[in-house]
Amino acid sequence: MSHQTVIVLDFGGQYNQLIARRVRECGVYCEVKPYTTPLAQLKAMEPIGIIFTGGPNSVYDEKAPRVDGAIFTWGVPILGICYGCQLMAQALGGEVTQAQDDAAREYGKTLTSYDTNCRLFRGFPAQGISWMSHSDYMARVPEGFALTAHSANCPNVAVADEGRGFYGVQFHPEVNHTEHGVDMIRNFLYEVCGAVGDWTMGDYLKTSVAAIREKVGSGKVLLALSGGVDSSVCAALLAEAVGRQLTCVFVDHGLMRKDEGDEVEAAFAKWDLNFIRVDAEARFLDQLAGVTEPERKRKIIGEAFIRVFEEEARKIGAVDFLAQGTIYPDVIESGAGDAAVIKSHHNVGGLPDYVDFREILEPLRLLFKDEVRQLGRELGLPEYLVMRQPFPGPGLAIRVIGDLTREKLDTLREADAIYREEITAAGLDRTINQYFAVLTNTRSVGVMGDGRTYDYTLALRAVTTSDFMTADWARIPYEVLDRVSTRIVNEVQGINRIVYDITSKPPATIEWE
Ligand code: XMP
Question: Ligand 1: residues whose CB is within 6 Å?
Fold first, then answer.
């Protein structure tokens, strides 16, 4: 594709994907590449600029990541952030040392003064808050560099050699705590690198529809549609591109939220494709009967799903392409090691070997989640699908604690629908990243009218998070909780007590099972 590209060279910092997202939000395409990528490969991408990310190391460590020095004579503008800044300074003849006294180490929000004549800070106020996280500092900046920002503790918060297009900042422009951080990234892209802003989802839609048509030709495409954002947008994009050459198999396992199956089906009514909805509720519930252990539930559901999909695929016969809704964060190579497995969720890697196909098709492979949503909007998918919160593959099976019955699932569906309705009505659905109800396995005594009840306790969960790896419980206003509670106990049979989950992750997880 013919858009301008920026490379985000990854040195292992925690905000690297965020940098890439910010660049794309500015209308410029970028890719994250590990710092070990050979220079020739980077050159082949013909970038208009490179951003060196932060990283956990100190540049003077023996094993610290380095770059090929020839990158500095290539003639492409470079913005170094934190470690990236220090690395550039050191490589170009400066000196970086560990701050000896605490004052020179900077963490957190720091009042920073900018030289607004520098292209990076053009249009900035003279001072603003920036987010620092460094214990090393540039004792001597390289020749040719000017100091372009300072704080009370640090004379060289930012440095620049404008002639060569080299810029370095000790703070993190990509995080929200840095005021004007995005403006700084935009200045680098537009003022320094000469970006034209040719990355929009409208254009992407056009070029990717054309690319898919060319690749698929008259071939057949098969996709397992889960109803989540990624698979839905993937299905819509393919439907737009190849229409009836696409078959979507939507396995309705009966573990979805209220009306969800119908909503998903309705969203695809506008395309002429082969849409197969398999009603497999009885089969799933049958296999799950009496099962209480969360990982067993996951295993049974995962396997049953594969069997059902396999049966449908057999009916369809050989296809040319198996499509998957893989997105960019799933494919970015990074040096980070694997974390311990707490739950066996992430359904990546398990290629169905039972489907007879020639090639995998991953049309969302380059997109971040926000971009996938935007593309969904461009395709005309309804907002409730595009903005859908994450929903686990095993669905409500892991939100009914202990053994499952159709009746318990229905109770949970009703309660969960009310909860979601009230969160949306209160305008909280944009700030809370995931919220749902859990039917606990606990029954307690209550009184309704003049009678005693002995019914289930429902738990409400709501979290704010940026990556779902850690999460904080959401501070929902009491009035909203009160409305939810009153409505649920009045409107849903079988629930007489509501509790709100006030644990963060860690130590709890987001789901209860
Ligand atoms: P936890 O509960 O591990 O959840 O804090 C983190 C995120 O992952 C989702 N989740 C799952 N997703 N299959 C999935 O596809 C699963 O088995 C599963 N378990 C948890 C959870 O909803 C949250 O967004």
Answer: 298, 342-343, 345, 347, 390, 392-394, 434, 468, 505, 509-511
